Amino acid sequence: IMNVKILGTAAAALLIAVSCQPKKAENEEVVMEGTEMTAPAAISIEKFTDSPAYASSSLTLKNPSNTTIAKAGEVDFAFDVKDYNLGEVTERNGMAGNLANSDKGQHIHFILDNEPYSAHYESEFKREMPEGTHYLVAFLSRSYHESVKNSNSFIAKKMVVGTASDDMNVDFDKPTMIYSRPKGEYTGADTENLLLDFFLLNTTLSEDGNKVRATINGQEFMITEWAPYVIKGLPKGEVTVKLELLDADGNLIPGGFNEVTRTVTLKD
User: Fold this and answer.
1) Cβ atoms within 10 A of the Cβ of 234, count?
2) Is it the case that residue 23 has pLDDT exceeding 90?
3) What per-residue confidence (pLDDT) applies to 167?
4) Is-contact 56 39, C-beta < 8 A?
């Protein structure tokens, strides 16, 4: 369990069940003359561990078998999935029961060049591939969009379509972070608990080693364990989430995908 300190000037510290605490808390009570007002609660994140493990599940890429493709256009992708049922709704225990969930079931997160993923509920599908050098990461996902985190649950491939053109500074043999969630638009009850999830290649996280810094609407959280988290206390409207993969000294680890900023929208 991580121990992350809440930083800032708030009068009362926000107690979080796990180790993630924000840099700036805004939950202090503000008393004005003749009026009592409470500022919005601080954003918090909380680790959860109730997900089915799927420790033996695996994902491999069958097609295209060659990572060099002659020309841009529609490409047939085919994956081999073992010990994992695509299209099956994942058992939802504890915190997972409060997360946005796809009634289409478990799926593959397909991430090209670190753009927001597309979800695929079958192992074979077509995707447009533009010309150039591309970086593909795909991993198994539970129906509530949490990644399956084991050494065989993902593929990471550098692919060249037509003429190579590479300026993304990515090396899949070095420590790499892949952003996954939160993503898109949330409404109603789904806005109360947002999944924070990412995928790691060639690294682990620890208090005295590499870390992920999450900055959510300006509040910072230092993550020292690779696990799923739930973000709580978010206001309606646009929410900005920035993730950075840092070394033990707090420096950004080189790599084109190791610093990512995304915006999601929360609606009533």
Assistant:
1) 22
2) no
3) 86
4) no
Mean pLDDT, rounded, for 201-221: 98
| Residue keyed to tokens 């109603």 | 188
Neighbour count for residue 268 (Cβ, 10 Å): 6
Q: What secondary structure does DSSP assign to the chain, as a single string? A: ----PPPSS-SSPPP-SSS---SS----EEEETTEEEEPPPPPEEEE---S---TT-EEEEEES-SSEESSSEEEEEEEEEES--TTPPPP--GGGGGS---TT--EEEEEETTPPPEEESSSEEEEEE-SEEEEEEEEEE-TTSPBP-STTSEEEEEEEESS----S---TTS-EEEEEES-SEEEGGGGSSEEEEEEEES----TTS-EEEEEETTEEEEE-S-S-EEEESPPSEEEEEEEEEE-TTSPBPSSTTSEEEEEEEEE-
Name residue 153's amino acid.
S
The tens digit of pLDDT for each residue in 46-71 reads: 999 999 999 999 999 999 999 999 99
The answer, yes or no, to whether residue 10 has pLDDT greater than 60, is no
Amino acid present at 19: S
Predicted TM-score (pTM) of the model is 0.85
Per-residue tokens: 91: 């058992």
Does residue 204 register a pLDDT over 60?
Answer: yes
Return the structure tokens found at 76.
């047939």
Whole-angstrom distance, CA of residue 149 vs CA of residue 228: 10
Contact between 210 and 177 under an 8 Å Cβ cutoff? The reply is: no
b/e 172-208 (16+ beta carbons within 10 angstroms → b): beebbbbbbbbbeebeeebbebbbbbbbbbebebeee
